[in-house]
Structures are given as C-alpha cells and as structure tokens.
Amino acid sequence: MLILSLIEKWFMRYVQTTRSEVENMSCILCQENAVAHYHKDRKRCYLHCGNCDLVFVPNTFHLTALEEKKVYDQHQNNALDVGYRTFLSRLVNPLLLMLPEHSKGLDFGSGPGPTLSLMMSEAGHKMQIYDPFYAPHRSVLSDCYDFITATEVVEHLSDPSRVLELLWSILKPGGILGIMTKLVVSQEAFEKWHYKNDPTHISFYSKKSFDYIARRWRTTAEIVGKDVILLRKPPKQRML
Fold first, then answer.
1. 8 Å CB contact between 6 and 138
2. Alpha-carbon span 155 to 204, nearest angstrom
3. Alpha carbons 47 and 167: distance in angstroms, whole number
4. Long-range contacts of 223-229 (CB under 8 A, 24+ apart)
5. Of the ranges 40-44, 88-92, 128-132, 170-174, which one carries the lowest mean pLDDT score?
6. 61-232 belongs to which CATH class?
7. Exposed site from 13, 84, 111, 121, fewest CB < 10 Å?
8. Is 0.85 topped by the overall pTM?
C-alpha cells in the first residue's frame, strides 16, 4: 500500500512540474541558474546543472519526512552483518591509513543501525554519531572533528550546499571528510541506472561535482574506487 500511495503522489507531482518552473530554478549545490532538463521517467524528472554537474530531483517530487523515514525503517543494515561491514570498509580502510591514532570523528547520517562508527571505534578512534531520524542530537554538530564520514548520505540531501558547508565548518584544519556515494558517469548510463530509482535519492554527483566542491574549499577531491571521495581540509597557516 505504501508503494501504491507513493506512485500516486509521484504522478501528481510529475504532472504539476512544468518546463517554465524548471527554467526559473537554481542549482541546489552551486546556486547558479544553469539548470536544464536531464531525464524523466514514469515517477520523476531530473535536472542537471551545467556549472557543477549535479543532477537533482525537483522538490515537487521529494518525499515528506514521514514517507522518507518509512523507507529507511525497511533497511536491514546492522553492525553484525559481515556484508555490510565489507561494504563500509571501502571508506573505512583508506580513511584509517590517513588518520593519526586516537582521532576524533563524526559519522553523519549514521542510520538505524550505526556500524561505521563502531568499526572506527574498534580501530581506536573516538566517535560521535548524528542522524536526523535515528540520532538527532544536534549538540554534536557544535563540536569539531579530525574526520567526518557520510556514507550513502549525500544523495538524500535536498540542500547539499548547506549541509556540506556545515560539515566542512566543524572539520578541524587538516581533517578529512569521507563521503561514499555512487557517481553519475554519463546521461546515457543515468537512464538505466538503478541508483536513481530509490525515491529517497534526490541528489546525484559526478567527479566534476566533487571537483567543484573541492575548488570551493581550496582543496582536492581524491576518488577511491568508484564511490568513495576523500577531501582533506587545508591546514591552518601560521601568521608571520
């Protein structure tokens, strides 16, 4: 019943979205007015920014917070799942090679079964977690960290510019922001891409998108494998 209800709402939102509305939209990442139609399917339409290369879903098609949580509640990830740990190790392993011992970290978007934070704790690091649905302790967002992780999170963001700037602001100089998300390769591949079919996925990044973010932060984006992005915050320069 939940799926049927969502389909009906998607259809109404799809009908209501007009080309003129799209032409007046700005990008949710870079705020530039360089947005154009990219793709449409039976459920949603997708827009593309010619400046930062982000592909995103107009907010007309976004789920409500309640609808979104119902989808997340169906996830079966937990800390005892070896397969899930193996998946997260794609970010954990390269991150561990870059961190000093006993670093302080934040797992942002930890989900209903926090696991990455446990893996980092097992490796000797001190961890905090935050999740708007399952660990909404905003006080942890006022602290500062040696590293921050966001695994399978940024594709859910309706305002990635604001959230990413927040995470960058609470990262210590020399600290590392580690992101895991699947990347857009081409428009042709996007049309057949299963990743876009998740109704909670609304922001899709390419390597160019992370290069844009890195330039904005005066750093570089290191792509590890197909879906791990590491950004190191420049160290604080001494005053002469």
1. no
2. 6
3. 25
4. 223/183, 224/90, 224/91, 224/94, 225/90, 226/182, 226/183, 227/90, 227/180, 227/181, 227/182, 227/183, 228/90, 228/91, 228/94, 228/178, 228/179, 228/180, 229/178, 229/179, 229/180, 229/181
5. 40-44
6. alpha beta
7. 121
8. yes
State whether residue 148 is helix, strand or coil: strand
Per-residue pLDDT tens for 150-182?
A: 999 999 999 999 999 999 999 999 999 999 999
What are the sequence ranges of the domains in the chain? Answer: 61-232
Among 155, 153, 164, which residue's Cα sits nearest to residue 203?
155
Give residue-wise pLDDT tens across range 17-37: 555 556 578 999 999 999 999
Could you identify the residue written with the tokens 């009908």?
15
> Using CA atoms, how far apart are residues 37 and 50, in angstroms rounded to an integer?
11
What would the two tokens of residue 116 be? 């990455």
